[in-house]
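Re: How this chain folds, sequence and tokenised backbone to follow
How to read it: Take the token row as a discrete description of the fold.
Start of record: The labelled sequence and token lines come straight after this line.
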Amino acid sequence: MSVGMVAAGVSAVAAIDGMGAAEDAANAQSNSAAVANGMTREAAARQRNDLMPWMQGGAGAQNALLDGLGTLGNGANRSKDEIRMELVQGYGMQSGDPALEQRVNDAYQAQYKGGSGSLLKQFDQADLDKDLVFQNTYKTALDTGLNALNSRAANSGNWGSGAALKALTRFGANTANQFTGDAYNRNMGEKNQKYSFLSGQSQMGQNAAAGVGVNGMNAANIMGQNTIGAGNAQASGIIGGANALSGGIADATNAFQWNQLLNKPKSSSGLSNSWDIPMQPGGGY
């Protein structure tokens, strides 16, 4: 076998090896991107699961707050399927869970009642009747004071007089105003406290959801960059393989042509090859 044929074979083998190396490099880059994307996706899912209790608590507090403000469900009404999908995808509840269906029904019905509006409700007799401090102290204070005034009027001989009745009336009105005002202040304090608690919990849930959203966007950007990098590596591998193949073919063709020329029989003129041109006497052609 001639040297030219060996060179052509070596060029072909080198081209095939070059194509394989380019493909291996591209596959390695693609596999690395897939592993990195899997790790990024797992980390994002882990953070979402870790923050899920805060998001669920925040959502519950927000619903309670909207109910207290009387604005729950004042937006566009949603179907039960839409509510169920939101609770499953957004808050991690499990399909078929009885608690899920209860939440779905409650949220669906709440759309049509607008919430209780308890935080904005005006103070009235019902609130006074429910005030345990008022109920346990007002009557005692009123009776004690009236008895003291009556006893004083009786001891002074003014019992039943106009002045005594006026004093009793003034004491009763002042006592009622004081104790009712205290009850009103307690009622407003409880409303403000409830609003503050629910707002804080809702804000905590909002922050958790925002953190999950930002992390999800970052994860998407990272996975997008990894995927683009893998695509570029695949494209480079294809181009590199094509270049290796075309280069190998060119090298093998050149080697073959040189082999043909070197091994061509001598012509009858005595020249070793057809491309050997004799020199003319005197240095001319």
Notes: The mean pLDDT is 74.
